[in-house]
Amino acid sequence: MSAVPPLAGSNRRFMSGNEAVARGAWEAGCNLAAAYPGTPATEILEFAAHYPEMYTEWSVNEKVSLEVAIGASLAGSRALCAMKHVGLNVASDALMSQTLAGVGAGLVIAVADDVGLSSSQNEQDSRFWGRFAHVPLLEPADAQEAYEYTQRAFELSERFNTPVILRLTTRICHVKGVVSFGERSETSRAEGFVKDPGRLIMTPNVARKRLPLMFEREAEIQRHSESSELNQIMAGSDRRVGFITSGPTYMHVREAYPDAPLIKLGLSYPVPFDKIRELAGQVDRLVVVEEVEPLLETELKAVGIELLGKEILPRLGELSPNVLRPAIARLLGEAVPETAAPVKAPIEIKPPAPRIDPATGANVFPRPPTMCVACPHLGIYYCLSKIRNTTISGDIGCYTLGAGHPWNALDTTICMGASMGIAHGLDKGRVEADRDKKIIAVIGDSTFMHMGMQGLLDITYNKGNVTILLLDNRAVGMTGGQDNPASGRDIHGNEAMKVDFRKLCEALGVKPERIHEVNPYELPTLFTALRNEVKIPEPSVIITNQPCVLIDYYGAQPALTVDDDKCTGCGNCLDIGCPAILVTRRETVVKPNGSEKELAFVKIESGACTGCNLCPKTCGPDAILPLADYIRQ
Amino acid sequence: MSENKITNILVAGIGGQGVMTAAEILSQTALSQGFDVKKTEVAGMAQRGGVVTSHVRFGTRVLSPAIPPGEADILVGFEPAEALRWISHLRPCGVAMINTTRQEPPVVSLGLYDYPQDPISEIAATGVEYHAFDAGAIARELGNFKLVNTVMLGAISELLPFPAEALKNEILDRFRGRKPTLVEINEKAFELGRQASL
Ligand SMILES: Cc1ncc(C[n+]2csc(CCOP(=O)(O)OP(=O)(O)O)c2C)c(N)n1
Ligand code: SF4
Ligand code: SF4
Ligand code: SF4
Questions:
Q1: What is the structure's pLDDT at A580?
Q2: Do B111 and A586 touch (CB under 8 A)?
Q3: Residue A143 lies in a domain
Q4: C-alpha distances out from residue A326 to A147, A295, A306, B162, Å
Q5: From atom 8 of ligand 2, which residue's Cα is the shortest distance away?
Q6: A548 CA distance to ligand 2 middle (Å)
Q7: Measured between alpha carbons, how far is A367 from A319 in angstroms, rounded to an integer?
């Protein structure tokens, strides 16, 4: 029935691209893997940590993870670091100079682009880094290739003495496919670290000598790229359009145009120009399908290869078959297909009906991600939403959701750690109209340690006036609750150093009396601390101390319930934003003074509530009480 | 080229409902039946009550992992508004299997948006074949809301190009190893889902 034999035997498994990268690294003899979490790359390290032969760590940020990997490579061990696209912005300082020095044992940087923006602050094309840093860039098209290319990346790195970028996208990282795999071979270098100051100490003199070598290396890899089997022309019978594909776009093109000639670029930088010219000679027209920037397109046009790219294809998002088909049909002057290829439904063949109107369901309410039931951030945003005359500088983490309903209590979010510097700038750059504005910054534990600490030092050193909410939930919540120095556990869950944020903030120059540790479920205490601190014209830090509800430090309590007879429909508890609180009915009443008031009566979903006891503190008539008391009544 | 029939199943619901698990079980069953399979996984933000979908595609050889709009053969809707949201992803000759238990998001609770009056009749109006039943109630009656997942898989088990028993075994095997106490209740949930869809 099928081309794929059943999964008998142990060397074939259904795995995601992320797992495949970890497997590939392990088999390649990689000895060290380091990362800072980030969607969609997070699971690479989570899977890597399953292999005891590799040392693995959560680094505090991507730059450190790359530096750790560089060190290991120089020490003679193959090393991997993994990050999401924006992570390489942070790590690029290390990359841009290490490319001059080269490597010791193989050094691979896996970087995952969030094409289509499923959970990121921007869409970025990491293929630029290949050009910028003059390093080779591999682009797998599915999980099997993610596994294979990881191993090839280590080989290329050693062969050409260069860091290698393995460029992934969400569709590679988070798609599972069948992967055939092998076993580990040990590859660490026998001689260990070799002193080589003329290469490894990057002073201007050294860099000046290394630059021409880097360009020579790039030229050499370019020649290799022309003959590498990672770059393949695939013949096809329908020569009206030939395609240039790299990474996941190969799958999209092959699916939409099984008979078209194409070139599949696995080693997509340096570009194999001659091989592409060869394809150009075989087809009427060339179309380059790349996610997301017109990078190959620009370079190929510059060397005089005629082709089409972003003139006919979108510059944003995925170029899936349903995006390609109408664009190519238009190019060929064919009728634009309303729906896709004539594949028959295998289930039941019925008379063809017109396609379901794509507008059906378009009006369904949005269902944006929310904070979890009982999240320790809820009380913070409840308070922030009640304080007037503020500008709130936010950061990246679950607490970014505080920008949404019902709190609407964030004014800026840019990149990790930015809440500190931006708050300081909002303070120092204020104009007369904002003279009395209170500047507040909100940052999580992981983000603070990633890149926020330096910003705080800047505030204290420069006599700033920012009230900082440091939300320590002992986890990297946003990416799934990974351990970090705030959890006091390492990547394996073993005990590790636990950072003392009070001492850390003191060391960074915050006065001891301006540091408060509060329980974020204790609304009155929290509110008082916040109201007092915003009035004092000095940097202050309010540290919260309750864990993310998704990690094992959190202990759920019995659910609460709403006593219908006592609930006045005031709606206060809804301002908490806990998803377990649901409206049962709304009523409009006319007050004695003639004005209308909207009432919202509520219930608590007992299957969801974990009894954090936050919402009762907003309820004047004490209508929210433990389920047990309610039944007793 | 030899005919490469691909079955496209779109599983749609809300974070925390077990959409991913259902898709994983479908994929593993298809694999054990000798198909090539691709499945998308979305993690991260998905945990927090947002929309979750997983695409499962299987056939002789599967290339692109995403089901294009209008090409799903089966839509497994874990929630009625979500089923409506994704209904146009279905082929006109496809089938929608829908759990009618509603889950209102905070934006509806806060009065910012309305929940559709009658999502099922909007789905009916498209003319597509659908089965709607209260999988949530079945799960609750069995004493565990998490069983919705198994109920829904039972419900589509007769629509698949492999025997329903294969799917059932895949589910039960997952419990046999780790939580043998749950085998019986899952089997019940599966069968109740299967009957409810008939
Ligand atoms: C440079 C960079 N690396 C990684 C990420 C992915 N990311 C987003 S938020 C976050 C951490 C959030 O942790 P924390 O600050 O502790 O807040 P929480 O989510 O736990 O509330 C990460 C790793 C990113 N957006 N940018
Ligand atoms: S994952 Fe943790 S920090 Fe994030 S919203 Fe949920 S409880 Fe809050
Ligand atoms: S006690 Fe209130 S705020 Fe806390 S989880 Fe229950 S409903 Fe949500
Ligand atoms: S705060 Fe109390 S009285 Fe007001 S709506 Fe909520 S439960 Fe009812």
A1: 93
A2: yes
A3: yes
A4: 33, 22, 21, 34
A5: A375
A6: 5
A7: 25
Burial grade of A633 (CB within 10 A; 0-12, 13-18, 19 or more) = exposed
Quick one: pLDDT at residue B83?
97
Domain CATH for A64: 3.40.50.970
The yes-or-no verdict on residue A583 having pLDDT over 80 is yes
User: Is A64 contained in some domain?
Assistant: yes
Query: How many separate domains does chain A show?
Result: 4
- A586: which strand partners? A600
State if residue A570 touches ligand 4 by the CB under 6 angstroms criterion.
Answer: yes
Average of per-residue pLDDT across A472-496 = 96
Same domain, A143 and A262: no
The interface predicted TM-score (ipTM) is: 0.93
Q: Is A262 found in the same domain as A187?
A: no
Mean pLDDT of chain A: 93
pLDDT per residue over B36-70, tens digit each? Answer: 999 997 654 545 778 889 999 999 999 999 898 99
For A311-314, which contacts have Cβ atoms below 8 Å and span 24 or more sequence positions?
A312/A287, A313/A287, A313/A289
Alpha carbon distance A386, A619 (integer Å):
15
Those residues with Cβ within 8 angstroms of residue B144's Cβ, 6 or more apart along the chain or in another chain: B185
Q: Which has more confidence, A413 or A359?
A: A413
Q: Ligand 1 — pocket residues by CB below 6 A?
A: A 36-38, 62, 84, 86-87, 90, 121, 396-399, 416, 444-447, 471, 473, 475-479, 548
Please indicate whether residue A5 or residue B176 has the higher confidence score (pLDDT). B176
Tokens linked to B63: 């290339």
In this complex, the residue of A318, A405, A607 whose CB is nearest that of residue B145 is A607
- pLDDT 10s digits, B135-147: 999 999 998 888 9
Tokens of A1: 């029935």
Distance CA(A52)–CA(A43), nearest Å, equals 16
**Average pLDDT, stretch B86-105?**
94
A466's tokens: 């920012």
Ranges of beta strands (E only) in chain B are 7-14, 36-40, 51-59, 72-77, 90-99, 129-133
